[in-house]
Every structure is written in structure tokens, then in C-alpha cells.
Amino acid sequence: MTDQRLSLSLAAAIAASLSLAPVAGHAQETFKIGLVNFLSGPAADAFGVPSMNGGVLMVEALNAGQVPAPYDGQTGIGGLPIEFVQIDESGGAQVQIQRYRDLVEREEVDAVLGYDGSGDCLAIAPVADELQTVTIFSGCGTTRLFEEASYDYVFRAGAHTTMDNVALAHYIKRTMPETKTVAGLNQNYSWGQDSWRDFTAALTLLMPEVEIGPELFPEPGAGQYGSQISVLMRAKPDVVHSSLWGGDLEAFLLQAGPRQLFARSHVVFNMAEHVLPRMGEKAPVGLITGGRGAVGELRPRTELADWFYEAYAEAYGIPAVQGPFRFVQTILALKTAAEIAMAENGGTKPTDEEIAAALAGLVFETPSGTVEMALADGHQAIQGAAIGIAAWNDELGRLELTEVEHFAARCVNPPAGVTSLEWIEGGMVGAECE
Amino acid sequence: MDIALTILVDGLIYGAWLFLVAIGLTLVFGIMKILNVAHGALYAVGAYAGASLVGGYLFATPPAALQLPLLIVAALGVALLLGPLLEGVLLRLFYGRDEVVILLATFALSLIIEDLIKQVWGVYSYYVSEPYALFGVIEAGPLFYVGYDAFLIVVAALVGLGASAFLRLTRQGKIVVAMIHDSEICRAMGVNVSRAYLWTFTVGVFLAALAGALIAPTLAVTPTMGVNAIILSFAVVVIGGLGSVEGAALGALIVGCTRAATVHLWPEGELFIVYAVMAAVLAVRPRGLFGMPEGRKI
Amino acid sequence: MTLRPSPAPAGRALGLAAAVASAILALLLLAGWAAPSWAIYTATIALAKGLVVLGLVMLLRMGLISFGHGMFYCFGAYVSGLLASGAGLTDALALTLAATLGTAALGLLLGLLLAGYRGVFFAMFNLALSMILYGALLKSVSLGGSDGVSVPAPSYFGLVPPDGMRSLAAYGFVATIACAAGFLLWLVSRSQLGLVLLGVKGNEIRLDYLGISARRLILVAYVLSAALAGMGGSLVAIVSGHVIPEMAYWTTSGEFVFITVLSGPGSISGAFAGAGVFEAVRLATGQYLPNAWQLLLGGFLLLVILFLPDGISSLARRRTGTADASAPPAGRVQGEG
Question: A240 forms bridges with which residues in the sheet?
Fold first, then answer.
């Protein structure tokens, strides 16, 4: 079974990284990074393990100099081989602070990359500044991170929650202009609440005549959506918006499919892309989704994107989804910034201050397209979004996202200096949509 | 379909699932006085076993007629393998210790099982949705229900009636009831309590695994699927009164219908409605609805 | 019968215990000064969580287990967190006192209801209440929802430690509070109140015959344990700089029960030692075996409860062969007949 092979190879990778640990500080200088994501708990299969797989793949390819342009220059980071330590993100914010401090103070990593949980990011950020260690977040979506505080050493190399929900609103206006009623099914915790808030704000701005309701807020981890499906079937909304993910999303798709929800309403998701390759024919045709950026099958068809997609499929036997795409953005941001800093300081290993200075406002290429650290004084990334519709592909033997609509980064992200909600409620002034 | 009727049907479906998970928990507690925290992890193992046999992971997907029997076989396999192993080798070491120590032992066990699941099956979800289509789709007004959910209600009713009949009508059942009340006296009367414990625990594992295997077709099988199930079934058995089959049934119905009503009428309350019901029941009936007062010993 | 501290520990024993507590504190501070920086944070958290465990140890001595003390831990943390972030109060001592008193009040309110419950029902009622708090916090967008609340860096008696000293200052503060609380609890466990507490587990009816209300005893112990949990939560909030609803989730409460059994009911220092061992084992397994740390943690717990039935605290006694100064003199009271 591929799963066993995966966990074995992961175990081997960990064993390898462990056996490397004592070698640290030995003749050759290295660049040591901590990679953090969920290896257990509900987010492990959806995001954590694929992210780690993608991260390990990218680090090894960078060390071997196999990554295509623009990363075909120096191996590793500025010629220094990259060494990594993997950490499990599960256990809650307090545990993560502990593990973060251990990474920085005992393992003495040069930078920490990762984190998908918003609570974890909010908790780690002040600690990163206290310990003055470059820390680049990958998946956490909360807009609070840089809208309520500012940090010197903390960056987020992927877009926040707002983007995909604004893109969905644009998508509905563009492709389903006849929409009259929209219902929501979002989990009752920050991710779900924020997604629904941004989506409804953007949609009521773009399509003021649309009626909102019912608004469902299932408990995270519920796994049983029978009652919610009944509510949606009775209300017969034109569109249902959902930010479900992982096992809960899969359960919802498996339960809602036979109950004809997809035959009655358009169901749009902001991040359901990640379950499609594994669910194969079990996911419903007609599902509309983004993937928090142009990732996986939604990716821009560049050499870098195609190389990553194919290398991942070859290494792990399954297509890369949003987790790995997002995670490698942190690695590439670090590599680009560190090499800029090295070019300026004469080629020595850069300090955290130097890397942080180079990261602020950085523009860099990733498998998900060009990413620009445009917001929060150059600490928060914006990138393009993409939304597609699931259709059966006989050749692949599974559902595929087709009719992909791309949205420019500056169309679906707020401009600098204004919070997301203010921007949306103020009429999305400054949005550059073509 | 009328909203009250919809709530009732939704509640019944949810309650059937809860009851299937909770009945093993309540029996093991009633007889062995063990609150088995690992019940949720065993439920997950049952789901994985069912998915492996029927979902096309080990063999090709079996023909429709064999799918349900194979799910039950999977649960039996889990019970016969893990029941004697866990009770005979592990739990036995802790008998005679405080209830809380045994509870902690099962908590440790659930941590171990959850990680072992990841080692054996990996972290990615398994799907076994084929049986979900076995009983077709039932149209009811604006709604469509899945026949398999009706089948689960029937199974839950049969399991409950079966357990109840066993306890009331058979000799072994009466011994078990006696053990629920006082296992020390039973021992003195010549009941082989140790063998009864082995059987009880194995049946408990079977019921957990059966719930897992039968629910697996309706959702994605993941390593953490037991976490939510175990805490909800705690609520169900505490509401009903620990150790009582009838109590678990009533508890499951109450929780199922309240949750369904909350989703329909006050969606944001779903987060804590189950615990609010549990607290309210305990405040009025300190030992649950069917709980029996404990004799005071001087 | 009214309960008051018995005169026995007054005088020499009291002075000795105070000296022991001060000596332990001095040792802790010295160790903190000498320890590598990475160990400081984990030690601080362990001391703070040790306070929660201390409260649970008190309940355990009465034969009661709460599967919901995460509620008080979380409540204390949020009181501190919200006072600091919302009202701008940053003095660590003031925050901790406010959180402790606030949690004690909540403990009294709930304790009036819960004191009549025993066994599994006591454990589960606590669990239900803690899950209600968890749900309410998750849903409260204005309180940060599931992402929680950031707590600004604390000040100590008007002084704000510089960046490099923050961990050490926090450690010193938490160690001082922990030693003071430990000493006070030692006094309680030596008092008549502490001794009759054991009777609740032993045999309530005999207590009745002595004219002591088990219900009232449980209420007192419950409020104390709630206050200790709130204190621990407040310290964790101040030290970590972030509070989340998960602090009230049932697995957090389970973790505290886990540490309590790991520590054993024997001693006060054992509660802190147990918390330290737990945090260290979890950190080490999480860091080196990110895929199997739960398995190792579970295995470790099984071994401890199997081979050290009275917890880690019994290890010290076994080795030295002397009685732990803080152990209740009556030892464990077994319920007979």
C-alpha cells in the first residue's frame, strides 16, 4: 500500500535527519531549518503530511540542484546545504511554543518554516520576535496575524483567508449571475467564521440583491452532516458556500452526494481541492472549489509548477495538492531572501536581520506562480487565486478541476495599509481585476 | 416534509449511530466498572478493518451481497484479536486498582492504538462508500434520505433489543445483571468472574468495531475519527445512566433529537448543546436517567 | 465540629517546613540560572501545570477525579489574558491574583452543585461543564474564537525585563508562586482539614458519625483545586503569551488527570515532578519521533502506573527510605468493608 510506503519513507527521512543532527557544526557549514506541520491529528492527512512530503522533496531537490529556473543557480541556500528538523504541529498553541523554543534554542535552527494552524501562528509570532529568529508561516489563514500586530522576524509566504472567499464571490458573479440565495456551511471556529464573514461581505458587495441564509455552523470534527444536509435541502439555496476541509469535508461530500444536494444547489468551497485526487470517483461531479492559491491542478502551467507537480507525483504516487504547494513557498522565500542577503554581505551566511530585511517586500517565483510580500510592510504575501469545477476525466479515472478561472493577486487581495474587512466593506477600492 | 418530522428523522439517524457506539461502552462499564476511553480508538480500528476488507484496499471490492456480511466479519476479527489481547494481557494487570487508574490505562491505550493505526494504515483517509448505496435513496418531500441510514436505525434497534433480551431472558444474561450489581457476591456464588470479564470486554470491542465498520461507509475513515465519537458516547451513557442498555438508547435518542433540532433551529448552538443537555440531566438526576443509587456500605 | 488548622505543625515543624520551601525555591532559582535557555521555558510551564495537578491531587486524596479542570485552567488563563490585553493590566502578580480569585469564585459556584456527586458522575459533570465553556469560547468571535487571545508581555512589580531576560524572569516568578502555593498547601494537608479530607475517600459514613459534612469538605477542596487550576492557567497565559479555548477541551483535562496519576497522591513536590517528567517526555518524544510520540507517551504511562502504583513521588521515598515531609502522615487510607 502506498500509505505504508509513505509513512516508511517519512520515517526514513526522519531517521536520516536525526542521524544528521550530531554532524551539525562539523567542517561544512549548513543552513539548518525547522519544518513544522501536522503529523498527527485531523489536519495530518489533509495538509500536514503532504506538506512535509513536499517540503522534504523541495529541500532535497534544492540540495541536489535539480529545481528548474529561477532556482537552477546555487544549490541549497547560497551554496550551503540545507539541513532540516521535522516537528509535529499537533497539541495546541502552548505545546507549539515549547517546541518552537526547543527548535531555536537547543536545535539552533537558522529559520523555522511552516505552521498551518492560525492559533499556532498567533502564538508563535511574538516568540519568534523575542528570539529574533526568521519564521515564515505557510498555511495559517487568519488576517489577525498582521492586522492586529506587527513583527520584525515573522512573515507569511502565502495569502490569508480573504483571497479565496473574495475570488469565490467574483466567480459566482461571473459564472452564476442568476444566483438569488446563498447558504453557508462553515465550521464553528475561527477558520469557518472568518471564511464565511469575508465571503458574505464580498458577495453582498458584488451582488447586493442576493439573500443570505441559512447559515450553518457545525462543530469541528463532527463527521455527521445529516441534519445540516436536511436544512440545506429544505431551504433550496442556489449556492452553498463551505470552508470544510479534511475528514469532515470528505464525510460531507460522501453524505451530501447521495442526498442530491449537488443536483439541487451549486456547492462552492474555498479549499476543497485537496481531497479530490484521493477521493477519485467518490467526490461529486460539479463541485466548485479553489485551493488557497493556484495549486495542484489549478496551478499556472510554468516549468517550475509542472516540475514540482510531476516530481511529487513520482516520489509519493499521488498528485500534489495545496499543502505541498503552500509549504514550498516558505522554502523558496527563504532561499531567495537569504541569497539576496548573501549577495549583499559578500557571501557569508546571512544573519536573521539580513534575511528579514531581504524578505520584506520580496517578490519570488513559486510553483503557484509569482508571490509578492506586498502587505503588512512586506511581511504578508499576496498571490493569484484560481477556481475550477470538478468534472469526470476518463483518462485519469478520477475527477479533475476544469474550466479554471484565474484571479490576479491584486484583484482578490486588499491593498497595503487597510484591513481585509475594511477593504471589502468599503467597496474593494483599488482592486485590479482585468 | 414537515420540520418536526425532519428533525425526528435526522435525530433518529444520528441517535442510531450514537447508540451503536455507546452500547459497548455502557456494557463494559456496567459489568467491569471500566470506563473504557479506548472505546473510540477501537471504533476507529473497526472502521479501518471494514474499509480494508470491503473498500477494495486488500482485495477487489466484493459483490454487493457480501459487503455487509464482510463488514461484520471485520468487526468480529477485530474483537477476537484485540478483545482477549487487551483484557487478558493488559487490563488484567490493573484489576483491583482504583477506577481512575484503569481509566487512565485505557486512556494510554487509546493513545497507543491511535498511533498504531497510523503505522498500519497511514494518515490518509480510507473510503468504503460502496455499501452506502446498497439500499438506494428514499425520496421524502423536498428531501432525499439514504436507505443505508434507515438500515443503521434497524441495526441499532436490533442490537439494543438483542442485548436487552439477552440480559433479561438468558441464564448468562441474568448472571451478568447480577455482576452489574455486585461482582464480589457473584464470585462468592461460584461465578467465573474472570471468564465473564474476558467475554464482556471482547463483546465490548466487537460492539465498538461493529459501530465503526457499519458507519465507515457514510464517512471518511481517519485515525482521529474516534475522538469525537468517544466523547459523545460518554455524554450518551452518562445521560442514560452508566451500565444501562435502555439508558443508552434513551440517551442516544435525546442527544440525537436535541442536536437535530438545534441544527434546524439554532445552528450556532450545536457546539455545546450535547454538553448542556448532559449537565441539565445530571443536575436533575445525579446518576443519569436510568442510574441506580449505590448502596451505602459502612 | 469546626475545622481549624491543628496546632501541631506550628512552632518548630512550621519553621522547618518554611525553611524547606525556601531552600527548594533557592535551589530552583539556582538551577534556573545555570540551566540552558531551552530548558527554562519547559520548566516554567511544568511548574505552572504542577499547580493544576496539585489541586487534582487534593481531590484524588478524597477519591475524586475531575475530567473538567481544564475549565478552571482555561478560565484563569482567559481572566489574565483579557485583563492584560483588554484592560492593559500587565503586572504578573496582580494578574495571577485576579485570575486565582476569579476562578475560586467560579469554583464555589459550580462546587455548590458538584459537591453532591461522586465517581464517574463527578468526573463527567465536570467534563460537560468544561466542554460548554470550550464551545462558548470557540463561538465567541469577540474573544478571539478558536485562535485565542494574545497576552502582552508581563511586568514584574513595575519592571519589564529586557528581551533576553524574559524567560528567566518568568521562571523566577512562577517558581516563587509555586513554592509559596506548595507551602500553603502543605499547611492545609497537615491541618485537621487536610486529615479529614482523606476520610471522604476512606468512608463517608464514618465522617458523618464524626459530625463532619463530606459535602462541605468536598466543596472546600473543590474551590481550592479550582483556584490552583486558575492560578496555573494564569501563569501559563502570562508566560506563553497566548491563550486558546483548547485549554478547556476535554483532552487538556485528561492530560492533567494523566499527570496527577503519574505523580501519585503522595506528595506536593511530586505534583511538580510529575508535571516536569510529563512535559519533558512529551517534548523529547515529539521532537525526535514526531510520528510515534503518542505511542511512546501512552506506553510510558502504562509502565508508570504498572510499576509505580503510587506514582513518581513514591520513587523518591523508596530510594531514600525516608518519609516525604509533605506526605500526609496518615498515608493512604484504604476504604474497608
Answer: A183, A267
**The three grid cell numbers given for residue A52, joined into one nine-digit string:** 512535509
Q: How many angstroms away from the CA of B151 is the closest CA of chain A? A: 15
Query: Is A59 a member of any domain?
Result: yes
Query: Taking the domains of chain C in order of start, what are their residue ranges?
Result: 15-249
Q: Residue A433: inside a domain, yes or no?
A: no
- For residues A46 and A275, the answer to whether their CB atoms sit within 8 Å is yes
Kindly report, residue by residue over A47-60, the tens digit of the pLDDT. 999 999 999 999 99
- pLDDT tens figures, C185-206: 888 888 877 777 777 777 777 7
Contacts of A107 (CB under 8 A, 6+ apart): A21, A32, A34, A85, C287
B109 interaction partners in chain C (CB closer than 8 Å): 298, 302
- Half-sphere exposure of residue C327: CA atoms within 13 angstroms, side-chain side: 19
Q: Across chain C, where does the E strand assignment appear? A: 149-150, 242-243
CB contact (8 A) between residue A278 and residue B124: yes
Per-residue confidence (pLDDT) for residue C321, from 0 to 100: 44
Show the DSSP H helices in A184-225 as ranges. 190-206
- Tell me, yes or no, whether A215 and A200 share the same domain: yes
**Nearest Cβ partner of C295 from B104, B115, B231?**
B115
Note whether A169 and A284 are same-domain residues: yes
Same domain, A373 and A413: no
Rounded CA-CA distance A107/A406 in Å is 41
The residue-averaged pLDDT of B50-71 equals 90
Of residues C125, C254, C298, nearest to B282 (C-beta): C125
* Mutate: best of B86, B234, B237, B239, partner C, most C CBs <10 A: B234
Here the cell at position C5 is 488548622
Q: What is the mean pLDDT of each run of 10 residues along chain C (337 residues)?
A: 49 80 88 86 95 94 91 98 93 96 97 89 92 93 91 92 87 95 88 77 77 87 96 96 94 92 84 92 81 86 86 67 40 34
Determine which of A97, A98, A160 to mutate to test the interface with C (most C C-beta atoms within 10 Å): A98
Please tell me the total count of domains within chain A. 2
Element (H, E) at C25: helix C12-34
CB-closest option in A99, A119, A148 to C283: A99
For residue B183, pLDDT over 60 is answered with yes
Supply the pLDDT for residue B1.
66
CATH of the domain at A268: 3.40.50.2300
| Interface confidence: ipTM more than 0.90 | yes
Domain boundaries, position A33:
2-159+300-382
Contacts of C302 in chain B (CB under 8 A): 90, 105, 108-109, 112
Instruction: Quote the CA–CA distance of C47 and C282 in Å, as a whole number.
Output: 15
A window 265-294, beta carbon within 8 A of C: none
CATH class of B3-284: mainly alpha
pLDDT value at position C333?
A: 35
Q: Mutating which of A9, A219, A276 best tests the B interface, going by the most B Cβ atoms within 10 A?
A: A219
Least confident of A230-234, A269-273, B141-145: B141-145
Q: Is residue A121 located within the same domain as residue A239?
A: no
Residue A175 and residue A136 share a domain: no
CA distance C90 to A182: 45
Average pLDDT over residues A139-158: 94
Inform me whether the pLDDT recorded for B246 exceeds 50.
yes
Strand pairing category for A385-393 and A288-290: antiparallel
Are A392 and A316 in the same domain? no
Query: Cα B263 to the chain's mean position, in Å?
Result: 23
Cβ A87–C166 below 8 Å, yes or no?
no
Neighbours of C36 (CB within 10 A): 8
Give, for A113, the enclosing helix (H) or strand (E): strand A111-114
Could you read off the pLDDT of B85-120 as tens digits, one per residue? 999 989 999 888 877 788 889 999 999 999 999 999
